[in-house]
């Protein structure tokens, strides 16, 4: 189960990097014996609204400590949609950790539930190249998308540039999954430490 301690560890790793060290200042205690596919998401509060600042993860099961360390850094500094996180943003950040579970391949691209399942699609682009894209379970619900809108956004996210047809949607290979998620603001982190 994802916990606030997992998020606190991501803050520890981020702060260590921003301070020019490799070892986190605090030692978070959590069970590191299990392995999960996971995502680390950073958001920044701007005028009371949370805005995505970085989100990257992995579908291969990883031990928690090494996975959280790697993806706390990758999502903070190497998400190509954003510039790297700076020290000046720290107090306005929040961190979410999503541990992914219950992967199921589906026969139909609509065989999933908004708000319950994350979706991972595989498809061939216009050049015949295999592409993938995913949204975590909360994305479609938060954006108030239908299932078809979600699939269309995933196709665009994966780089599909042609007109999206019903035939294209049906050609998608979809895997649904669930997520155990924890969230921690910087203020909560500071209180924990």
TrEMBL record:
Looking at the record's lineage, which domain of life comes first?
Answer: Eukaryota
What InterPro entries does the database record attribute to this sequence?
A: AMMECR1 (IPR023473), AMMECR1_dom_sf (IPR036071), AMMECR1_domain (IPR002733), AMMECR1_N (IPR027485)
| Sequence ranges assigned to domain AMMECR1 in this UniProt record | 1-193
> Matching NCBIfam families, A to Z?
TIGR00296 family protein (TIGR00296)
* Protein known as: AMME syndrome candidate protein 1 protein
- This chain is encoded by the gene named AMMECR1
